[in-house]
Amino acid sequence: MDLKIALYSTMAPTCGLLLGTVLMGFQPLATAQPVSDAALENFVGQPSGTIDNLGNGDATEGSAIKQTFSASAGQTVTLDWNFLTNEATPNTLYNDFAFVSVRPLGGTSTLADTNSRFPLLGNNARFNDETGYNTFSYDIPTTGTYTLGLGVVDVGDRVVNSGLLVDNVNVGTNGSFEAGDFSGWETIGNTSIVDSAFGINPTEGNSQAYLSVPEPSTILGSVIVLGVGTLLKRTAKHKHKNLNESIK
Ligand SMILES: [Ca+2]
Ligand SMILES: [Ca+2]
Ligand SMILES: [Ca+2]
């Protein structure tokens, strides 16, 4: 084979592969992205503005799950939840939080925000702060059909991740997520089923639901690059904060 042809036949696929890799690098990844707070309110069936009106700041985006079930008056809905965050805590500007919604009665409540107690600081490799599992309960006042919704949101901006683990829901079907999927549930945004390999054990069985507000996974231009710069700065602040805490 002529040297030039040999070189070309080696180079062309390599260049093609390189170009392909570069192009692929700019494609959005398959990671499901969080949705607006308006979309979350529509999803759980609460009035527009409900999430911002909880008083934790301006929610920008989030993820949620829901299930509709029949319940009798006097029955108690219980579930286990664990709020995780990489935001500095407490934090008035970026007060990410988790919420629960029960409709048509019950309304919407904050489960935890950055002002909550985080006894499990740094317990999980993915998050700096963790509330640990707590139990939410709600007494059904009237026999009927109810929709339970659970969500986690970014506040103030769309960076620095927070998450919500849910398990052991005592109403509806697949309440402990032991089917290994969201069968019986509906989801919106970034949700998945995780086991103890996540770094935190489920409270019932082997599986638990994980909702989060991950960072944008692609870099498409200077605006987003600037956003990533801001994120890096804020991450550095967090590290600084943790360092201070470890010195105390
Ligand atoms: Ca908002
Ligand atoms: Ca955040
Ligand atoms: Ca479970």
Rounded average pLDDT: 84
Q: Count structural domains.
A: 2
The number of helical elements comes to 3
State Rg: 22 Å
Textual characterization of the structure:
This protein is an alpha+beta fold and 248 residues long. It folds into 2 domains: 30-217, no CATH class; 219-248. Helices cover 23% and strands 31% of the residues. It contains 3 helices and 12 strands. The chain has helices spanning 3-25, 37-44, 222-247; strands at 35-36, 59-71, 76-85, 97-103, 107-113, 129-130, 134-139, 144-155, 162-167, 186-188, 190-194, 208-212. The strands form 2 sheets. Strands 1, 2, 4, 5, 8 and 10 form a 6-stranded antiparallel β-sheet that branches. A hairpin with a 3-residue loop joins β4 (97-103) and β5. The longest helix has 26 residues, at 222-247. One calcium ion binds at residues 87, 94, 96, 154, 159-160, 162.
